[in-house]
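BUG-493 | component: ligand-complex export | severity: low

The export step for 6-O-phosphono-beta-D-glucopyranose jobs runs without errors, but we want the raw record kept on the ticket for reference. Input record follows.
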Amino acid sequence: MLPRRPEPCLMVIFGASGDLTYRKLIPALYDLVAARLLPSGFAILGFARKPKTSETFRQEMRRAVEEFARSRPIPIDTWEDFARRLHYMTGDYNNPADYRRLQQELEALSPAGRSNWMFYLATPPEVYRPIVEHIGSEVTLQRQGGWTRIIVEKPFGHDLDSARALNQHLHRWFREDQIYRIDHYLGKETVQNILVFRFANGIFEPIWDRRYVDHVQITVAETLGIGNRGSYYERAGVIRDIMQNHMLQLVSLVAMEPPAEFTADAVRNEKVKVLKALRVDTSRGDGTVRGQYGPGVINGQFVPGYTQEQDVAPDSTTETYLAMRLMIDNWRWAGVPFYVRSGKRLPRRVTEIAIQFKMPPLLLFSERTANEIQPNLLVLNIQPDEGISLRFSAKVPGSGENIQPVIMNFSYNALQTPVPDAYERLLLDAMLGDSTLFTRHDEVEASWSVIMPVIERWQSGQGSFLEMYRAGTWGPKEADDFIAADGRSWRVL
Ligand code: BG6
């Protein structure tokens, strides 16, 4: 199949002098240009408060590309091709006059006024509302010809009410099919592979349910702390930063029913059904363990505790670790716990999904083997060692029936095909008008609905206590007790 190539378009990046633009968006767009996946009529207009010229913007973006692009070194002609597409304008997000200037700039950059316009919200979420409104009222209101789309970065809302309000606000100015809510996890190759693995193979789906699966464990572990994002993280915590979006996306992809067709709406309909059947299991306690990292050692380096980080209150109770037991009340999954955990400053950066199957119904060899028989385990490694492994039991060679677990491993590295960055895939999809890997309005609201009861219990003082853990360890010891109470244990990673 030929690579898909979008129509020419102009992308306006609000927040063009920010970190996301520098580390992710520009490097990904450069990589798309370098791979010749974007047409010559594609251009970028950075918009931000910081005064600078287009030339200064180009110089800064050159450094961004050198630091973060995938395709390096940077050939001079490819850079020049990219640089000529970069423009910048200074503007105030709250000032309608600046949007009128933006509109004129866009017209000037659009060949014969026919071009397509894509707006990217890469600013702090506090200014999403004025930007959306001013785009709608000053920039696109009179527009004829060409498409208009808007990409909205996370966090999408701070809670269910604000997410709903933001959806309503967006819908005043844009139709749902023009709105692309990004969750960069969905752009990861291995996350998309969950669907391929499940639905392009015949042998897994028949055992993918409560009859064969004992439980599912999903881990999103990071060694990083919060860097210079203290003021954002203080209001978010891991529940909003990872659980409400990335983690629930992983849960819904693992648990969803096969869609009738591979279209954006069919896939998202199935994901929404999972989210609607999903709940945090409160049959014991509030179904969560939350923690906060104290000082410790990561990769041989001393690191400060969370409350010593920049812009964090010394008495902060924000959680940097969270484990939860989730249940899905539907025919496929009733009674199968999904244990999820995520934390900052853990010993390893790893994201994986482990499907633990039930023990064989009859343990024929248990008397004869010196090793304990272990159930089958399927692990989908999302990062960093992207791949899939299956654990099963095999006979140890020799006389007798000694049994040991062995692992069958598929690694993406072995394919030697470069894996694109999540933003490359998502930016290209948005330009192509394919919203399969973006979150629909009802999906984002359904995932907030799963999380809100936990937040409300914590706020009312009825939820789990905040436990401390040393940076460089696998979270508070209460997390081990939590899963041990069900007769299970966290995977050792
Ligand atoms: C972001 C969070 O959405 O995802 C960060 O805001 C987190 O706190 C990051 O570090 C993790 O993404 P990745 O792709 O590194 O797993």
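Assignee comment: Attached the raw record above. The radius of gyration is 24 Å.
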